[in-house]
Design goal:
Layout (H helix, E strand, L loop, with lengths): L1 H18 L1 H20 L6 H30 L3 H6 L5 H31 L6 H27 L4 H12 L1 H15 L7 H28 L1
Length: 222
């Protein structure tokens, strides 16, 4: 299963490295979202600084939807999804591989968004251990749920509009938990953030388990 996961993850990451869709399209979109937030909120009033954690993770979720759609769009061309089903790879391995590839792309986008927040919003934070653990747990949760709902929507005609409607409400615990943890790190009270990291870890683990068992039937139906 893990060998199959490495094969699928490597394939998806090589496709992205050659196409550079995440770098040339998703990353500029993410930075544009941050700029629009800066225009919408007055930086001098302090509202922008207070809302920075929430704005950051909203931008991450928007980018995650695009990355997940892209991850399954590459399987739709030229019967690639049928070839994937007939490849003999373990469905759980395919799920974990696509999840890992999406997570790797999200980590890169989160770093770029973090730099954008620092440069555009002038945000200063402490508690780097809390920030890193929050990003890792939240990324795993987004990738786990996104991969599951991505294959669910992949076989539908309206998958481009249906996926956000299915996925974003499910990811509301991730948005809440990661925002609260970032606020705790920014305020210098990391003790208040670690319970939220625990919630994010439970969310990620739950969806990873469900995905590993449910991905196969959903792939067949797609």
């Amino acid at each position: 299963m893990f060998r199959d996961a490495l094969l699928v993850a490597g394939k998806d990451l090589r496709v992205e490295a050659r196409s550079r869709v995440a770098l040339n399209q998703v990353a500029p979109f993410a930075l544009l979202v941050l700029i629009m937030f800066a225009f919408a909120l007055d930086p001098d009033s302090g509202v922008l600084s207070k809302a920075t954690p929430g704005l950051y993770w909203v931008a991450v979720l928007f980018c995650a939807v695009l990355a997940i759609q892209r991850a399954f769009a590459i399987e739709a061309a030229d019967g690639n999804r049928d070839a994937l089903r007939l490849s003999g790879l373990e469905p759980a391995g395919i799920y974990l591989g696509k999840m890992a590839a999406i997570a790797a792309q999200l980590v890169i986008l989160e770093v770029l968004l973090g730099l954008g927040v620092v440069l555009l919003y002038g945000t200063k934070t402490a508690g780097w251990a809390l920030l890193v653990c929050t990003c890792l747990a939240a990324t795993a949760g987004i990738a786990a749920a996104g991969t599951l709902y991505g294959v669910l929507a992949a076989g539908l005609r309206v998958r481009e509009t249906l996926l956000p409607l299915l996925l974003l409400p499910v990811l509301s615990p991730v948005l809440i938990g990661s925002t609260r943890a970032f606020e705790a790190a920014r305020n210098g009270t990391p003790g208040e953030g670690w319970p939220w990291v625990g919630l994010l870890a439970v969310f990620a683990l739950t969806y990873t388990i469900f995905g590993a068992f449910g991905f196969g039937p959903l792939l067949e139906e797609s």
